[in-house]
Amino acid sequence: MLYAALSETGKVREHNEDSCYADGRIFIVADGMGGHRAGEVASALAIEEFLDFERENRTVETLNRIRDAMLSANEHLYEMALKHPDMEGMGTTFTVALYERELYLGHVGDSRAYLFRDGGLTMLTRDHSLVEQMVSEGYISRREARVHPQRNVILRALGVAEDLEIDRDSMVILPRDKILLCSDGLSGALEDEEIASFLSRVDDPEHGCRDMIQAAKDKGATDDITVVLVELDSETPEGGLDSDKGKKAWWKSLFSKPGPISMSRHNPIRRECL
């Protein structure tokens, strides 16, 4: 496995409220919201709280562990906002991919997870946004949604409400698959076809992240841009993935890149949440 995580401010932004994390097993993108630097606090603390909870509850079934860790982060942020008036309205999107033989996903907000397999790009998450709801109900087209004046209004996020529904899913990952997590700074600037084109040419995740971020900037991205890219090994271990030998070799390969990547850029971005 190879992976990279990069985060940069958009073309007209001075600050960045995105945070991200990658360690070979857990991959996260969080896009903060709220004034007075509350957004940068929300995205960074959400990741910290998630990782602490997950680390202490490894015996819990994976999808339930993801849900409970996200709910713990939600409670932490919500209570902090109640205690600190200057952080009222803070929150963050949160998209996590956790690899334990299969890929497990947890998601709220409008950051995204994609799978690139055999030349095709599939979105693994659903945007919790006003425009996505309008598209699903037939009020606007998907193309209209990309330029709609309320495209930044999101309907679910960590920290903005005491109760929260979390999307969860799991799937089998194959050799040569690529997993992309990104904030809407990337997906709002680049069409899915453009993202697929970049992923089809990627031979190094770090270069791929940099190229996609630069392309988003070149198209005038106004939002912070965060990208986490994971590339699975190109060969199946001897004996196949389902054999004991294959599972051990495959699991070992996940940790071929030492050390976690964690980014928390302290910058404000205006986001809205209903």
UniProtKB/TrEMBL annotation:
SMART domains: PP2C_SIG (SM00331), PP2Cc (SM00332). GO terms for molecular function: protein serine/threonine phosphatase activity. Gene3D superfamilies: PPM-type phosphatase domain. CDD domains: PP2Cc. It holds the Pfam family PP2C. Residues 2-232 form the PPM-type phosphatase domain. SUPFAM superfamilies: PP2C-like. NCBIfam families: Stp1_PP2C_phos. This is PPM-type phosphatase domain-containing protein. It comes from Candidatus Solincola sediminis.
